[in-house]
Amino acid sequence: MAKFILGTKLGMTQVFEDDGTVVPVTVVKVEPNVIVQVKTKEKDGYEAVQVGAGSKRKITKPMKGHLKKIQNSNIKNQNVRWLKEFRTEGGQFNSGDVIDISTFVPGDIVKVTGLSKGKGFAGVMKRHGFHGMPFSHGHHHVTRHGGSIGQRFPQHTLKGMRMAGRTGGVKRTTRGLKVVRVDAENGFLALKGAVPGNNGGFLIIQSH
């Protein structure tokens, strides 16, 4: 059975194993997720579930109408902040079902997707790892430049040319992370290692 849940990154800390080994972990805050919509092969052409999590003060009217379809009356009027769709196999989910952190157990291997930290405008050396120009006579003030970007043909800069620009702030996935601790009472999940994004950032956690 596929495991998935939505949460927010709290930050990094460390825990100690029984033998005294120090394990660096990222703590994720996970609130109960709700199944907003179930998609079937007969109606939609594929099997998937749409999961909602979080809350915010105001949502759009189309979103309100979408959330009214939830069968669970306790969640029907909640202003869901995030929606994410996961592919599934088999009809083990129903609209209104609640997914909590107890679906994960220590030892599970998961992949985590989030928005990487934004690093602002950066040059080619920081952004792409260019070596830069020689620090010799005749290279004054151009040591960190990218060099020529033009072509005789086709007389325009090719798409995908590595140049200076805004760095970070893109979707990234870290795979092979191990679940170290599961605190179902407080809704905390501890994953070994680092995950993408800032503290407080939205995360998608799912099993391999």
Observed structural traits:
208 residues; mainly beta; six-stranded antiparallel β-barrel; four-stranded antiparallel sheet; 12 strands; extended
Task: Provide a brief overview of the structure.
The protein is mostly beta strands and 208 residues long.
Structure description:
The structure is a single chain. The model has no long low-confidence stretch (mean pLDDT about 90). A 6-stranded antiparallel β-barrel has the order 1-2-11-10-7-12. Strands 5-4-3-6 form a 4-stranded antiparallel β-sheet. The N and C termini lie close together (about 10 Å). The chain contains 4 helices and 12 strands; from the N terminus they run E-E-E-H-E-H-H-E-E-E-E-H-E-E-E-E. Strand 1 and strand 2 form a beta hairpin. The chain has helices spanning about 40-45, 60-65, 75, 125-130; strands at about 5-15, 20-30, 35-40, 50-55, 80-85, 100, 110-115, 120, 165, 170-185, 190, 200-205. Helices cover about 10% and strands about 40% of the residues. The chain is mainly β.
Global mean pLDDT: 91
User: What integer value in Å does the Rg equal?
Assistant: 23 Å
Strand content: 35-45%
Number of helices: 4
DSSP, total strands: 12
Portion in helices: under 10%
Task: Please outline the major beta sheet.
Answer: 6 strands, antiparallel, barrel
Order of helices and strands: EEEHEHHEEEEHEEEE
Strand order of the largest sheet: 1-2-11-10-7-12
Backbone structural class: mainly beta
Give the overall shape. Answer: extended
**Distance between the ends:** 11 Å
Q: Stretches where pLDDT falls below 50 for ≥5 residues? A: none
